Amino acid sequence: MALIGKVLIAQGGGPTAVINQTLAGIVLESRKFGEMIKTYGAIHGVEGIVNEEFLDLTQETSHNLEQVAMTPSSALWSTRVKPDQKYCNEIFKVLRAHDVRYFFYIGGNDSADTVHIVNKAAIMGNYDLRAIHVPKTIDNDLVISDHTPGYGSAARFVAQAFMGINLDVRALSGVYIGVVMGRNAGFLTAASAIAQKYPDDGPHLIYLPEREFHVEKFLTDVKRIYDRYGMCIVAVSEGIRDASGQPVITSLRKDIEVDGHGNVCLSGTGALGDLLTQKVKERLEISRVRSDTFGYLQRSFVGCVSDIDQHEAREVGERSVQLAYWNNASGSLTIHRTGYYSVDYRLAALEEIAAKTRLMPDEFVNNEGNHVTDAFKYYVRPLLGAGLQIPSHLRAPRVPKLLTVE
Amino acid sequence: MALIGKVLIAQGGGPTAVINQTLAGIVLESRKFGEMIKTYGAIHGVEGIVNEEFLDLTQETSHNLEQVAMTPSSALWSTRVKPDQKYCNEIFKVLRAHDVRYFFYIGGNDSADTVHIVNKAAIMGNYDLRAIHVPKTIDNDLVISDHTPGYGSAARFVAQAFMGINLDVRALSGVYIGVVMGRNAGFLTAASAIAQKYPDDGPHLIYLPEREFHVEKFLTDVKRIYDRYGMCIVAVSEGIRDASGQPVITSLRKDIEVDGHGNVCLSGTGALGDLLTQKVKERLEISRVRSDTFGYLQRSFVGCVSDIDQHEAREVGERSVQLAYWNNASGSLTIHRTGYYSVDYRLAALEEIAAKTRLMPDEFVNNEGNHVTDAFKYYVRPLLGAGLQIPSHLRAPRVPKLLTVE
Fold first, then answer.
1. ipTM higher than 0.90?
2. What residue ranges of chain B have pLDDT lower than 70?
3. What is the CATH code for A153-303+361-384?
4. Residue A139 is among the residues annotated as catalytic for this protein
5. What's the CATH number for A5-149+304-353?
6. Backbone conformation region of residue A5, classed left if phi is above 0, alpha if psi is from -120 to 50, else beta
7. Which residues of B fall within a CB distance of 8 Å from A64?
8. Is B76 close to A394, i.e. CB distance below 8 A?
């Protein structure tokens, strides 16, 4: 028999374009079960839990939930707090006080870890709890799952951005460096490859955190492409590392911000792009060298979303509630590819997901370590969804010259 | 009677999302008139003309032209060359050699100047020519016209970006600075105001090149907003100037690139955003301060376009051909607002447009010089087109605390 008690939902880590689809999925599905007597939402993730900052989502209209589902970024707001054992005990204390029996935490591998510790605290405290980690991350770096909700929409943004960049740089020529989010995993940067339609389209070079970055090799690569096409478009993960494993941004520059977890702050600054631009200008003597750091635009841009990503984000929310109710289970929801393209969902043990990071597998990266393989393009394309615009070039013939001697 | 001869089209300056609508409009319309015996396209703008690098667009399929029309950035590629009298004489020589009788140059105020000089050369040379400047620029800085093709779509990108930023920054709090294109005119940066739906939505501060930028005033503004909302979202034009009229980017940093026309290179670098970020961190002691420079993403992003902008860009192309044919006229095509929202087109004298820059009128900027007025929002909204997504927040009631004493 299903547990009787309240449902609590929280959202953690960086926002995505479809994270509120998951929120709506959980709220709307939980309303169907009489045992789930109320549905609360914690404001600012685990911070909201320990401070008892809850919204009573039972009183939110279904219609507004559908509107919020279409809105990017965490509607319950988020947090960068990474709870330790003590913090998780606090969480558990609050869950018990409010008679929360179903806990859904939408987040990445850190959030899975939190759910795992809270679940253990509940077991230790002899408190019957269903604790589910519901996946989201634009980084696509959760183990076991084929991919994660949020990735497809961010990947679509990156692909569309590079389609435009191809056209823009071609019109005025030069070298362009686009810096894409991704601390450890290069999946998001790699999605730029979908922008290649015509044989000379960029990105001509793609650098990922999974491979060592050597400035000299980078300069040689850029020169080769530029000499061939008169232009060179580069996609770079913000997290690229040098041979010693240090982020390139710190090896080139010393005054870089470090966050509470000791992570170097990679986003919200144009530093890496500017530094690589400078190297190309100085060493290759190419005059038009430009760089953009995609930054926060790629994460919550309104109006750039994958329909596949939306559907799946909604379903992981729904399925989480169903599995907690019908299977009386705790765990982490995972997505599995069953065809090209179809998926199904399962529940993994929390400890299998918690605090683990998936990197790009070797078969997705080319031998030179400066681009992706067709296997990756085949993998990623369906995730970007339907209706992706395809750029078209003119194909009219050249006119013979009258004045100029060729 | 209409002139008999060839049509030549060129595209100049920075690309836009709809510049190929104008190209398609000219090509398809010119095919209707038997006197326009062939339609050529110059590759890389005026550079293509002097080098006789032409595509015979008469042989391009209408279907592919429609596909290209939907593709952002200049399909004929572009140029930054700003012709002088001698260069314009070269252009005229080529036009005459190829029996070009209709010359359409799609571009901004520099392009209008080129058309003006070429037209005078034709008159001096007793050569019957119809020379039309067809407007485009994301900067919206052409005089006489209510607005320019290309602006609406770029403005839509900026508005959608800030909608997402509002949601993203709210989820994790802090200060955010978005740097938007605009050397002299602030129209594009000002469009960020359309992102404000809820009363506390950003951008809370908007800084334009039309007003002096004072770092101290900026810091006071940011502090006031941050103290009130726990977050502050700022939109800044890349071209903001200090009291001496110098771009802020040069007054803060000395190693800035200067282009062939002596213009400071403002785009393709995160320098201004990084410098303002640093000021806020140091002086206001706010820890989470992030900046994005929208750079080239805002100009040719595939999949972010205003339908109004598309229609008008197509029509200015069509109308240009019609006026050259039916009115036997030369000049610069202008857009005039006739209702809310309807437009019509006229032909202005080339010297009225050439090399002049329109700035934001005073009634569009607030008294403090750190935001826009409702008059501007009323002006800009229709240009962004239909189907602009509207973000939605949760409105569920708070749950009373059980453990915490308030």
1. yes
2. 252-263, 265-268, 406
3. 3.40.50.460
4. yes
5. 3.40.50.450
6. left
7. 392, 394-395
8. yes
